[in-house]
């Protein structure tokens, strides 16, 4: 079978070991590359940022057939888009080699450059993909302070993307947004929307510089700053583009937001609990809040 | 230390083995008991359904002190509520015994009767906790067809509880809602809200019998039944109690809802995607939809 010519068969090869090492944050930082696993994430990377993708690894069986039909479609897409994808090298590998690369590849994995990914919020207006000036109307930024769980981190990036946010900012000491589990949980959204990093000070400085307000999601509030229930906030939303840019800031999964951060925000919003649940988890809170505000804004523009 | 008198120290004891076996659905069905792990779930079980709780196991260290401060609070609550909690037996166990009971106990676990839990939707109006007649106004039922992932299942139960739904129904072949991972993911909501089971036919029969409509969450629709975008649905919601009872039906994580189910629904609603994400996951869809409808309904009543 022609496909098997040059197939990578050695799971102990140096190249395989180097790819597998990209699961470690330290290695990713050192070599400036990341691992993208499974058809959905690889397809979105190849479609939206082919210039970042260096190598694609596709598992084939003993007869030389691609193990995953979706992987075969991605290979065909790359071959059919020479202009955009000319820099991508497609490798066929045995299942044993794929298993050595990643246990979560579902037949396809890619190595991509981390250049231009997970940059600083301060550079968001500095051109390129992150060019804030190319975006229309007021911006919505979804900001997460000390998000620690990779699954949560990926899910909130996906939710922010779906809700039409202009960027996601991981504030302070968060999980690395380029880690494999985060990437998988974003279902490709990592390649749709700028995901940036900032310190707490950088977050507030950026918002001040861009005439943007910071709205914290918190049930308690602090001192004189008490939360406004979300339905009240929605009822008071301007039904046109009159509102300015805004960052919605969510706290850590367990601790929420510290008081000294809440005190610096322009407002606090709480999601009402109508039943007996004590609280909502981070991903649920982000879904409810980001979507409510997005729907309110879009309905206003209709 | 008095606390250590009678402490369970043998991780190989028959009782310990029997508790650990409750992680298996088959054993739960056979013995009619379930395992409740970690402080939040145990506290909610003891607070909302003490009559279901048979035994509580609390880990103590070598000095006889309770390992978890939250577990100690629960023990104090049980001692202080003899009327409600008189039937609960509290056992102190070594950490090794607790590890043999559960790797996810965080210092406390309970064994509860499954009687009255995860019953049939058809019995929802039959009195007791599930007495539909004791509920006021139109009912909102959150129904999930073939939900398979335990974490998803628990999260959607928690979300439905927070959004004030009157019950959760697992339709057709779903994950067992009494499994340990589901229970943990509900964060106690399993003990706040009736969680019921139904076949597809039972779901539609119950809704027909109760003059309730079935609204499917789906992006595609089928045949002549096309989805209404959620913002349009919200704009058309009656701003009083004029609407009747309603079941919101969500599909399987990967497959969504089958066409033959969609065709039986009274309406279909889709959540708009404002960004480039291809879809939302089940838990996010449930959060956005259940909360939007709940907020709309509650604002209408204000």
TrEMBL record, chains A, B:
<dbReference type="InterPro" id="IPR001537">
    <property type="entry name" value="SpoU_MeTrfase"/>
</dbReference>
<protein>
    <submittedName>
        <fullName>rRNA methyltransferase</fullName>
    </submittedName>
</protein>
<keyword id="KW-0808">Transferase</keyword>
<dbReference type="Pfam" id="PF00588">
    <property type="entry name" value="SpoU_methylase"/>
</dbReference>
<dbReference type="GO" id="GO:0008173">
    <property type="term" value="F:RNA methyltransferase activity"/>
</dbReference>
<dbReference type="GO" id="GO:0032259">
    <property type="term" value="P:methylation"/>
</dbReference>
<dbReference type="InterPro" id="IPR029026">
    <property type="entry name" value="tRNA_m1G_MTases_N"/>
</dbReference>
<dbReference type="GO" id="GO:0003723">
    <property type="term" value="F:RNA binding"/>
</dbReference>
<dbReference type="InterPro" id="IPR029064">
    <property type="entry name" value="Ribosomal_eL30-like_sf"/>
</dbReference>
<dbReference type="InterPro" id="IPR051259">
    <property type="entry name" value="rRNA_Methyltransferase"/>
</dbReference>
<dbReference type="GO" id="GO:0006396">
    <property type="term" value="P:RNA processing"/>
</dbReference>
<feature type="domain" description="tRNA/rRNA methyltransferase SpoU type">
    <location>
        <begin position="143"/>
        <end position="291"/>
    </location>
</feature>
<keyword id="KW-0489">Methyltransferase</keyword>
<dbReference type="InterPro" id="IPR029028">
    <property type="entry name" value="Alpha/beta_knot_MTases"/>
</dbReference>
């Amino acid at each position: 079978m022609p496909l098997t010519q040059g197939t990578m068969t050695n799971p102990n090869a140096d190249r395989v070991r180097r790819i597998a090492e990209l699961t470690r944050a330290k290695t990713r930082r050192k070599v400036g590359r990341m691992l993208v696993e499974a058809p959905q994430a690889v397809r979105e990377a190849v479609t939206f940022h082919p210039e970042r993708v260096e190598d694609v690894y596709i598992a084939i069986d003993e007869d030389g057939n691609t193990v995953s039909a979706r992987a075969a479609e991605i290979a065909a897409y790359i071959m059919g888009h020479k202009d955009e994808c000319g820099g991508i090298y497609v490798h066929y590998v045995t299942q044993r080699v794929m298993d050595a690369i990643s246990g979560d590849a579902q037949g396809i994995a890619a190595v991509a450059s981390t250049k231009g990914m997970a940059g600083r919020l301060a550079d968001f207006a500095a051109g390129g993909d992150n060019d804030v000036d190319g975006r229309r109307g007021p911006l919505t930024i979804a900001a997460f302070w000390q998000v620690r769980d990779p699954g949560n981190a990926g899910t909130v990036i996906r939710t922010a993307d779906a809700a039409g946010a202009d960027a996601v900012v991981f504030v302070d000491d968060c999980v690395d947004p380029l880690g494999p589990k985060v990437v998988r949980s974003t279902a490709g959204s990592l390649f749709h929307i700028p995901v940036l990093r900032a310190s707490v000070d950088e977050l507030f400085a950026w918002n001040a510089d861009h005439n943007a307000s910071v709205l914290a999601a918190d049930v308690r509030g602090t001192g004189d700053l008490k939360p406004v229930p979300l339905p009240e906030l929605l009822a008071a939303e301007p039904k046109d583009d009159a509102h300015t840019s805004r960052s919605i800031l969510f706290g850590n999964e367990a601790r929420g937001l510290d008081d000294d951060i809440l005190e610096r925000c322009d407002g606090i919003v709480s999601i009402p609990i109508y039943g007996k649940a004590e609280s909502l988890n981070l991903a649920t809170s982000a879904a409810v809040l980001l979507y409510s505000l997005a729907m309110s804004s879009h309905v206003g523009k209709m």
